[in-house]
Amino acid sequence: MAKGSKETPDGLRNKDALVLQSVSTLALPYEAVNPIALSEDESSVAHSCPINYGLLSDGLQRLVAQVEHVVVEGTGGWRSLMNDLRPLSEWVVQEQLPVLMVVGIQEGCITMRY
What we know:
3 strands
């Protein structure tokens, strides 16, 4: 799931998801890399369709079955709320994914990671 997607002739596309797709060792369709694209105006909380965690989990399992490592990039922060007001971090814990936290070195970033 990626926020900040822009309309293209192929539909909504997020630049980070396109980078992940381009460096994948598999030729993956965009939807396998980013099953839920949110426009720049949408947030995951305001998104009109409920976030389908089953879709995310199923897609993750399909990728895990094909490769040795899968990179799941966060969307807007570790505790970003989805539209059911559940933080995305709960899905990460549910899927038992290892976490690498990257925090920018600027005022406020250390306290915002929680």
